[in-house]
Design brief:
The chain is built from 4 helices and 2 strands. By secondary structure, the protein is mostly helical. It has one domain. The chain has a two-stranded antiparallel sheet. Helix 1 packs antiparallel against helix 2 and helix 2 runs antiparallel to helix 3.
């Protein structure tokens, strides 16, 4: 199943809402342990809100710039491709921050290395090279190509 830009927007919004709800629930419980968890949830929600905004901006620019490029202006097409690449790179940096620094695996579905499988031993294996040290995020090439394709 392919992660489209629209699905990524919906996913980021859903995670933000979930984390906002979790933050509120933790604040309602009170106590220092719950306060700490509420802060983490609030930070994660804020990052996913920002991610949602960037994805919406990417989608809007892509739609606007694609309609502009239909005039046949090759310089404009190159500028669009450059902008899209820059936005997708920023997006990848945010996802890596969420995964690697916040130790949050909610973005792993967009990672090139995502996908557990059963190895020859019958045990679950994970091909993610940095999962245990939270240094592993690489945006799926399929997503990168789909999101930067100005013809599609």
């Amino acid at each position: 199943m392919s992660m489209t830009l629209e699905k990524a927007i919906i996913h980021a919004e859903a995670v933000a809402k979930t984390k906002e709800r979790e933050a509120k629930e933790n604040r309602n419980h009170g106590g220092w342990a719950y306060d700490d968890e509420a802060k983490k949830c609030s930070a994660c929600a804020a990052e996913h809100r920002q991610l949602t905004e960037w994805l919406k901006e990417l989608k809007e620019r892509r739609e606007q710039d694609v309609s502009d490029t239909n005039t046949g202006d090759m310089i404009s097409r190159q500028a669009v491709r450059y902008k899209l690449d820059a936005l997708v790179n920023e997006f990848e940096e945010i996802l890596a921050h969420i995964r690697e620094r916040e130790v949050n695996d909610s973005v792993c579905g967009l990672c090139e290395y995502d996908g557990a499988y059963i190895g020859q031993s019958g045990d679950w294996c994970n091909e993610c090279p940095g999962f245990e040290k939270d240094d592993c995020f690489k945006l799926k090439e399929k997503c990168r190509k789909e999101w930067t394709d100005i013809n599609g």
